[in-house]
Design goal:
With 299 residues, the protein is of the alpha+beta class. Helix content is 31%, strand content 25%.
């Protein structure tokens, strides 16, 4: 269990299931890992991927090695928007002679095949962009069986007192990781390389902190009873749900869900360290009506 700079126990809303998935995958070393990133014309269903970059890692004697790299520019059916081009530095001239998505989608599909898929915020963004590409060109969907998102790993290990935010640049810098000479962020291949190094730094941190062993033993810990929730909102950053809880032996405590920081902290009592927090997160969402981040008190 982690403590923040005020000495309070805290637990991420996303839990540690994904950390555990990645840790066990590295221990088993029995399948490929593909780490990838995209650059696009924008966001949403009608935006297009204009650069796909990925690294494929294969296990050998219990360790992973890069065995394949894919870096492909893709010509979209629309002009490159100025706003997107200002971020990723990809221009219409660079894309003029590149293949369209119909001619590269099968190569991308084969690159992903039978792999654990990893990236940075790729579950909410890049996976969706690839899914739209699949839908347009293949008539099916991109649905990876296993995902490891470095952003989710970072939210489980870093609190806002340590970093100004959770961008790839800030988290990689926190762990002392810098782009290779000549690389710049917002190039898909450069971002993929940084993401790979950041993933390994995060999972090493997770293991060194003893959180994997704690996760494995979580199911043997107590389950709390939630009796009351109260919303307190003072600003975007100071936006909380206070949760009254009781242990099986009747001890009272209070947790606080910090909506901006996406984490639970303990503000009264000494229960969190002895609680099955993975189950508590599910119970808190149910008590709140589906999602504690959207909890509203009944008038």
């Amino acid at each position: 269990m982690l403590k923040d700079q005020r000495g309070r126990f805290w637990y991420p809303k996303s839990g540690y299931a994904m950390h555990h998935l990645f840790a066990q995958a590295l221990i088993r070393a029995d399948k490929p890992i593909v780490i990838y990133d995209t650059e696009t014309t924008g966001t949403g269903k009608y935006a297009y991927v204009v650069q796909f970059a990925g690294l494929k890692l294969m296990p050998t004697n219990g360790r992973y090695y890069i065995t394949e790299q894919l870096n492909q520019l893709i010509k979209p059916p629309i002009p490159m928007p100025a706003g997107a081009s200002a971020v990723n530095h990809i221009t219409d001239d660079m894309l003029a002679d590149m293949p369209e998505e119909d001619f590269v989608v099968d190569t991308i599909h084969e690159f992903f095949k039978d792999s654990l898929i990893a990236g940075y915020n790729h579950i909410k963004f890049d996976n969706q962009m690839i899914d739209h590409m699949y839908e347009r060109t293949r008539g099916d969907h991109f649905v990876p069986k296993e995902n490891v998102d470095a952003l989710i790993l970072a939210r489980g290990l870093v609190n806002r007192q340590e970093s100004q935010g959770f961008t790839l640049g800030l988290i990689s810098e926190l762990y002392g990781i810098k782009p290779e000479d000549g690389d710049q962020l917002h190039d898909a291949l450069a971002d993929t390389k940084i993401t790979m190094k950041t993933l390994w730094a995060l999972i090493r941190d997770y293991m060194d902190l003893g959180l994997e062993q704690e996760f494995i033993s979580m199911s043997s810990k107590q389950r709390l009873q939630i009796t009351h929730m109260t919303k307190q909102q003072f600003s975007k950053e100071n936006n909380y749900v206070v949760i009254d809880v009781y242990s099986p032996d009747g001890q009272f405590g209070q947790f606080r869900y910090e909506i901006y920081d996406k984490r639970f902290t303990e503000i009264q009592g000494n229960l969190m360290a002895f609680t099955d927090m993975e189950t508590f997160i599910k119970d808190a969402d149910i008590f709140a009506g589906g999602d504690i981040a959207k909890f509203k008190e009944k008038k």
